[in-house]
Specification:
The protein has 184 residues and is α+β, with helices and mostly antiparallel strands. It has one domain: Aminopeptidase (3-Layer(aba) Sandwich). It is built from six helices and eight strands; from the N terminus they run ββαααβββαβαββα. β3 and β4 form a beta hairpin. α1 packs across α3. The relative contact order is 0.15.
Length: 184
């Protein structure tokens, strides 16, 4: 289903970002199935209707999460997704980013543009001050995206997240609103 640009929260030259909807299940899950080789062993997005409904439902309903689809402006295809998880307000005003490109969009710079739009939205309308990306050290593409979007390496956390049946080490990358403002 083509997505109309008026639904975008923000747009760049080639992509726009918008929130997840339950109606995106068919396209999202088809793209997740097509992208299994690209994602393994780092990421396991939902690839069936029931799993998608649960996943998107949490991003839509829960106040400590926000999910964004990165959509190509030419035709509206979903290129990938960026989620802001573990959103904390108050004096901390932070969130942890998770993201993934779909195979048809990988290596085309669409996720870099989309992640930049989400970062601007997080520091703007969402009023967050700090964003973190936690990446497994062997995930070169994800590290390159974090670096290209202005995130700085802050540290290493052994056995930080349980992924694919084991506790995995992660690098911690971060960006603050001030950092992002000086890059603009």
């Amino acid at each position: 289903m083509p997505h109309n640009a008026s639904r975008h929260l923000a747009e760049g030259p080639r992509v726009g970002i918008r929130h997840f909807t339950l109606d995106d299940a068919e396209e999202f899950t088809a793209r997740a199935r097509e992208s299994k080789d690209l994602h393994h062993p780092w990421l396991f997005p939902p690839d069936g209707a029931e799993a998608y409904a649960a996943y998107a439902g949490r991003l839509i309903r829960e106040p400590d999460r926000a999910g964004f689809l990165v959509c190509e402006k030419d035709g509206g295809a979903i290129a990938g997704f960026v989620n802001v998880n573990n959103i904390v307000q108050g004096g901390f005003r932070s969130g942890a980013l998770g993201y993934g490109a779909f195979a048809h969009a990988a290596g085309r710079g669409l996720m870099r543009e989309g992640l930049g739009l989400v970062v601007a939205h997080a520091f703007g309308p969402m009023r967050l001050h700090r964003l973190e990306i936690n990446v497994q050290p062997g995930n070169a593409a994800s590290i390159a995206l974090a670096r290209a979007t202005g995130f700085r390496l802050e540290g290493f956390s052994p056995r930080m997240l349980h992924i694919d049946g084991a506790w995995r080490d992660h690098q911690r990358w971060a960006l603050t609103a001030e950092d992002a403002a000086t890059r603009s």
